[in-house]
Design brief:
This is PLD phosphodiesterase domain-containing protein. InterPro entries: Diverse_PLD-related. The two termini are 31 Å apart. This protein has two helices and two strands; from the N terminus they run E-H-E-H.
């Protein structure tokens, strides 16, 4: 997950029993201080954001089918 200020790399399994029965790990990346000086490499958070934006807008990306989550299945 990438926000305006940080990146989170960890498990996608956020169910209650997962937290009760396993020892997962995560990494939160957040730059200390201000933005990097001009001409330097982008932060890892910025690189992750760029990768997500590239993949999200790719001509190969397709939307997931709509599902009715309420009512009878």
């Amino acid at each position: 997950m990438v926000t305006e200020k940080a990146a989170y790399i960890g498990t996608s399994n956020w169910s209650a029993d997962y937290f009760q029965r396993t020892a997962g790990s995560a990494l939160v990346l957040q730059p200390a201080g201000s933005a990097p000086p001009p001409g330097t490499e982008p932060t890892l958070r910025a690189q992750l954001q760029a990768s997500f934006d590239r993949d999200w807008g790719s001509p190969r990306a397709r939307g997931a089918p709509q599902r009715d989550c309420g009512g009878d299945t």
